Amino acid sequence: MGYFHDKHTGVILDLRIWIFLETFKIIEWCNCKFGIL
C-alpha cells in the first residue's frame, strides 16, 4: 500500500496507519459529542 507525505507534520506516513488514526479521531469525536462512552 502507498505512502504519502503529510502536509501538516511534514512526515511520510503509511496510508493504513493514517486511515487508522483518522478513524480513531472521528470515533473519539463522536463519543465526546454524543456521550456514547
How would you characterize this protein structure?
With 37 residues, this protein is of the alpha+beta class. It has one domain. The protein has a two-stranded antiparallel ribbon with strand order 1-2. The mean pLDDT is 79.
Q: Keywords, please?
A:
37 residues, alpha+beta, 1 helix
**Main beta-sheet strand count, sense and barrel state:** 2 strands, antiparallel
Mean pLDDT over all positions: 79
Distinct helical segment count: 1
Helix content: 40-55%
The number of distinct structural domains comes to 1
Q: Tally the beta strands.
A: 2
Proportion of strand residues: 15-25%
Kindly summarize this structure in a few lines.
This protein has one helix spanning 15-34, and strands at residues 3-5, 12-14. With 37 residues, it is of the alpha+beta class.
